[in-house]
Amino acid sequence: MLILTRHLNEKIIIGDNIEITVVDIQGDQVSLGIKAPKEISIHRKEIYEAIQAENRQAAQSVPGNLSRISQLLKRGQNGENGGEGER
Amino acid sequence: MKLQTACFGNIEIDPAGIIHFPGGVPGFEDCRRFVLLQRPEEAPVAWLQGVDDPDLAFAVVEPCHFLADYHPPLSPADLEPLKLAAGEEALVLTILVLAPEPERITANLQAPVIINREEKLGAQVYLGEEWPRKYYLFPRQGRKAAGT
After folding, report:
1. Which of B109, B95, B116, B107 is nearest to B137 (CA)?
2. Which residues of A touch B76 (CB under 8 A)?
3. In angstroms, rounded to a whole number, what is the distance separating the alpha carbons of residues A57 and A61?
4. For position A19, what pLDDT does the model report?
5. pTM of the predicted protein model
6. Which residues of chain B have a CB within 8 Å of the CB of A84?
7. What is the dihedral of CA A75, B50, B130, B75, to 10 degrees?
8. Distances in Å between the alpha carbon of A30 and those of A42, A58, B128?
9. With contacts defined as CB-CB under 8 Å, which chain A residues touch B57?
10. Is the peptide bond before A63 cis (omega within 30 degrees of 0)?
């Protein structure tokens, strides 16, 4: 990992089209501004990894017979199922 | 064009139906092209089938089929790469984790797939920690009471 030290308002450029600015520093919290091409997604790392893991689990859970789920959803539209969420 | 897929075997797809995901999706960043396939007996559930990675397929469904009020708030940063204007109609799909037992099937409401049907552009958008990554579509009766 390359480690660079920056002061407030200083910038880092990655390649020729990704730019990171130290926008604010409050105690141990740093706010970073990021300019990048719109096709590059930018996430807090732990969030990105959680979505990755969820997607991999989803991809590994197929193939499956979807007609069973289809029936359950159609029944549910008559008010028989109640979903619930968890993070 | 022909595609040798893991889920559907050898299939013929219409290149005009290919949807472009500029960054792929998290976990599958190199798969930039998908098609949406649906078998009538499986509706409303559909498949988001990878074109660049034919072994990749996600079971997807529009959340309106199991949730009355899911309106993902999309920021300008979400809309712009999809060439969507604010308030413009997009196709919203949630990726399902399948399981043999219905009570284990979940939909990812935290990171829906948003598709601009006209421009054939798509992306998986992160909404925030307050949205559930695992929304159980068919919880067993009394599951809440058991405190799980």
Report:
1. B107
2. none
3. 6
4. 98
5. 0.87
6. 135-136, 139, 143-144
7. -110
8. 16, 34, 20
9. 59, 62-63
10. yes
> Which site among A44, A66, A81, A86 would you substitute to test the B interface, given the most B Cβ atoms closer than 10 Å to its Cβ?
A66
pLDDT given for residue A77 in this prediction: 65
Residue pair A55/B28 in contact by the 8 Å Cβ criterion: yes
Are β-strands B134-136 and A84-86 bridged in parallel, bridged antiparallel, or unpaired?
antiparallel
Q: Out of B23, B26, B97, whose CB is closest to A39?
A: B23
| Digit-coded pLDDT (tens) for B77-110 | 889 889 998 777 899 999 999 998 889 999 999 9
Please judge whether B59 and A54 are an interchain contact, meaning their C-beta atoms are less than 8 angstroms apart: no
With contact defined as beta carbons under 8 Å apart, do A58 and B108 qualify? yes
Task: Report the distance separating Cα A14 and Cα A20, nearest Å.
Answer: 8
**3-class secondary structure, A52:** helix
Which neighbouring-strand residues pair with B59?
B47, B96
Q: Can you spell out the DSSP letters for B51-116?
A: SSSTT-EEEEE-GGGT-TT------HHHHGGGTPPTT---EEEEEEEP-SSGGG-EE-SSS-EEEE
Tokens in use for A40? 């590059």
Residue B145 has pLDDT above 70, yes or no: no
Phi, psi of A13 (to 5 degrees): -120, 135
First to last CA, chain A: 31
